[in-house]
Specification:
Elements (H helix, E strand, L loop, with lengths): L11 H13 L3 H8 L3 H8 L7 H11 L3 H19 L1 H4 L5 H13 L1
Helix pairs in contact: 1-3, 2-3, 4-5
Length: about 110
C-alpha cells in the first residue's frame, strides 16, 4: 500500500508557471501559440484550474523536450492526493477484503 504525503504534490501548472516558462524565456501566450491551443487553456493550467490531459501532455513534452509521462505522472500524483484528502471520511467506511475474511472466520467459529 502506498503512503500518501501530507503535502500536496506539485501541480504541473505550478512547475510550468514557476520554472518552465521563465527558463524557456516565453510567455503563456507564446506557449499557447507553439502548442496550437487557446491561451486560456495554458492560463487555466498555470493557475491550477485544469489538469494535464494526454493531449496536453504530448504538446508540453514536445515544447519542453520531455516525455508525456513526465506531465501525466505529475498530474496523477495531484489527482490521487486530492481524491485521498477529499474522500477520506468516505473511505473509512469501506471494509477491506482482509477484514471481511477475518470477520467471516470469526462468525463461523461461533
Amino acid at each position: 500500500m502506498h503512503t500518501i504525503r501530507k503535502r500536496r504534490p506539485t501541480h504541473p501548472g505550478e512547475l510550468l508557471r514557476e520554472e518552465g516558462l521563465p527558463a524557456a524565456g516565453i510567455t503563456a501566450m507564446q506557449l499557447a501559440q507553439r502548442m496550437g491551443i487557446a491561451p486560456r487553456t495554458v492560463t487555466a493550467l498555470m493557475h491550477e484550474k485544469r489538469g494535464v490531459t494526454p493531449d496536453l501532455a504530448h504538446r508540453l513534452a514536445r515544447v519542453f523536450h520531455t516525455t508525456p509521462d513526465v506531465w501525466l505522472t505529475m498530474q496523477q500524483a495531484v489527482d490521487v492526493w486530492e481524491t485521498f484528502t477529499t474522500h477520506k471520511a468516505e473511505r473509512s467506511t469501506i471494509v477491506s477484503r482482509r477484514s471481511r475474511s477475518r470477520d467471516l472466520r470469526v462468525s463461523n467459529r461461533e
